[in-house]
Amino acid sequence: MRVDAVTKSIMSYHLPVLSKEVLFFISTERSGLIVDGTMGDGGHSEAILKNTNPKCRILGIDRDASALARAKKRLAVFGDRVTYAHGNFSDIKRILQEEGIMKVDGFLLDLGVSSPQIDVPGRGFSF
Question: What CATH class has 31-112?
């Protein structure tokens, strides 16, 4: 099978460019809940989970169901440390209530465009 750039982007996960900066602001001793309000493929969440206390948990939110599905595959090794919610970060209050969450220790919002929205024909994005 010939692998072109589009196929390669579908087969691999997006690599976030700001992981070091995110980890700089997330304490490695943290054991609470981090909300990744723009989870995408889960790259930042993966970096956080790999580099923090094993008790640290993530609530990942994304409005793109296919991105959330990719994140679930990527983060499956972390088991119940990750909870997923399909929705927009602007609905955070409702999502936290639905999940029964009363306290959050940190928020992450990566407000840039996700590579698959540009690289994969037929995907696109809207505001």
Answer: alpha beta
How many Cβ atoms from other residues are within 10 Å of residue 58's Cβ? 26
Taking the model in full, what pTM does it have?
0.80
Give the C-alpha separation, 70 to 47, whole Å: 15
SS (H, E, C) 52-99: CCCCCEEEEEECCHHHHHHHHHHCHHHHHHEEEEECCHHHHHHHHHHC
User: Given pLDDT bands bounded at 50, 70 and 90, which one contains residue 124?
Assistant: low
Q: Where are the domains of the chain?
A: 31-112
55, two tokens: 């008790």
C-alpha span between 9 and 26 (Å, rounded): 28
pLDDT tens digit sequence for 34-79? 999 999 999 999 999 999 889 999 999 999 998 899 999 999 999 9
What gap in Å lies between CA 108 and CA 21, rounded to an integer?
A: 11
